[in-house]
Amino acid sequence: MSSAIQEQERERELGHDEFDPIGTLALIGIYFLILASMWLFMYFVEFLGNGPTVVGMI
Q1: Does the structure show a pLDDT above 70 at 2?
Q2: Of 6, 17, 34, 35, which sits with the fewest C-beta atoms within 10 Å of its C-beta?
């Protein structure tokens, strides 16, 4: 019983100003970089024709 009371005492609420979602921002940034690199690759493959190719030159 005393351990349950100690766990309740350790809990505290974070206010809106104390919450700093660095991990969420990092995941969004990584996702954006992946999307941007995919878009750039597809731009060269589909529209320019002289950039990076999926199949090597024969």
Answers
A1: no
A2: 17
Pull the structure tokens for residue 6: 């100690």
> Rounded to an integer, what distance in angstroms lies between the CA atom of residue 18 and that of residue 9?
19
Q: What is the pTM of this model?
A: 0.50
Q: Which letter, b or e, does each residue of 4-40 get, where b requires 16 or more Cβ atoms within 10 Å of its Cβ?
A: eeeeeeeeeeeeeeeeeeeeeeeeeeeeeeeeeeeee
Token couple for 8: 């309740």
Integer CA distances (angstroms), 35 to 14, 30, 41, 42, 45, in order:
33, 9, 10, 11, 15
Other Cβ atoms closer than 10 A to 41: 13
Q: Which helix (H) or strand (E) holds 18?
A: none
Task: Write out the two tokens for 39.
Answer: 């878009």
